[in-house]
Amino acid sequence: MAELRRLPPLREGDWEWQMRAKCRGTDTATFYHPENERGPSRVRRELQAKAVCAGCPVVEPCLRWALAAREPYGVWGGTSPEERDELLRAGRRTA
């Protein structure tokens, strides 16, 4: 579970993009790995999730939210937690 202290402050309209998300109504198990999932099964599940994200009209605000919230779990904005960590590290190096 994300630490609530780390979440960015909410502003009106922050979540409106979710109403247009392609993943809306999709089983969340597609986007969040079960405990101890490793190897090929995890890669397959992440690829399925990223395929949903690939055609999503709100992939950019989704990724922005996940980065701002430092979302530690699941596929958000077409990225895995590890990929988001790398984006955040790269941003700190260039800042």
Describe this structure in words.
By secondary structure, the chain is mostly helical. The chain has one domain (26-94). The chain is built from 3 helices and no strands. The longest helix has 16 residues, at 39-54. The radius of gyration is 14 Å and the shape is globular. The N and C termini lie far apart (28 Å). The mean pLDDT is 88.
Summarize the structure.
This protein is mainly alpha-helical.
Write the layout of secondary structure elements.
Blueprint: H1 39-54, H2 59-69, H3 81-94
- The helix/strand class is mainly alpha
Can you give the helix content as a percent range? 40-55%
DSSP strand count: 0
Q: Which blocks of ≥5 consecutive residues have pLDDT under 50? A: none
Mean of pLDDT: 88
Quaternary structure classification: single chain
Shape: globular
Total DSSP helices: 3
User: What string, H for helix and E for strand, traces the elements in order?
Assistant: HHH
Radius of gyration: 14 Å
End-to-end Cα distance: 28 Å
Total number of domains:
1
Beta fraction of the residues?
under 5%
Largest sheet: none
